[in-house]
Amino acid sequence: MMEGKVVIVTGAGGGIGRDIALLMARYGARVVVNDIGASLEGTGHDSSPGERVVAEIRAAGGEAVANTDSVADNGAGTRIVTQALDTFGRIDCIVNNAGILRDRFFHKMSDEEWDAVLKVHLYGTFNLSRAAAPHFKDQESGAFVHMTSTSGLIGNFAQANYNAAKMGIAGLSKSIALDLGKFNVRSNCIAPFAWSRMVSSIPTDTPEQAARVEKIKQMTPAKIAPLAVYLASNGSRDVNGQIFTVRNNEIFLMSQPRPLRSVHRSDGWTPESIAEHGMPSLKASFVPMDRSGDVFSWDPI
């Protein structure tokens, strides 16, 4: 399904990105494996994780090259795309997977903790997508696969930076789909459930939290890769602007914001009439204060 295509996978030195890169190569893609080799907190720089994945791909008969640019840097997107073009002659898909965490309750979060997570997730997705867009437009084909999260789409504690970035990625993906759809360019999101470094920091202070972590451990990163390969392939030519969740052997199509309920007064509203009539009428349709784990509360299949 990916024969002849060139794919860039960011954060591909381990976890979800590694499995996506390996499966892309197995299905015929030539892969740029991007990873700076940083810690979960984004510190350090080590080229060996990406190089190991490249070695795995080559050992299986595939073609790959490593890249160690940080997607958070303004010029990194152009450098990574240029490397793909110089090495393989084209670019067909971007998988925006790189990420870090700086978990902290909102009222205690520092400027650095906010900025660092937004820079890697949201700015990184923008940087690489914008760099690839002119090439996709000129060749009238291309696919973006962005990693969002149910922590952003639904909510989670102590992750205001991460949640905002992941919700922002969903909005960015929809804008890309709308702006580039007429050039046969697609942009879709995956919200993955998988045990990786990105979720290994989930607290286990209570029996309920510990049980949730044990469930997530059953969901391997390899479960995410098939949908990413499909969304990168020509088989998904009619799939654009969508958000999917993968949870072990389940694939969900996620809702996107639409009106739930309305109230109307022919003479307009006052603060008093909103309090007396408007808000009580709407309250039955309020979205509950759920976390991701409350919505996805059953055992993975």
UniProtKB/TrEMBL annotation:
Signal sequence, start to end: none
Protein name, UniProt field: SDR family oxidoreductase
UniProt organism field: Paraburkholderia podalyriae
InterPro entries referenced in this protein's UniProt entry, alphabetically: KR_dom, NAD(P)-bd_dom_sf, Peroxisomal_Beta-Oxidation, Sc_DH/Rdtase_CS, SDR_fam
Sequence similarity: Belongs to the short-chain dehydrogenases/reductases (SDR) family.
SUPFAM superfamilies noted in UniProt: NAD(P)-binding Rossmann-fold domains
Domain Ketoreductase: 5-198
Pfam family for this entry, one: adh_short
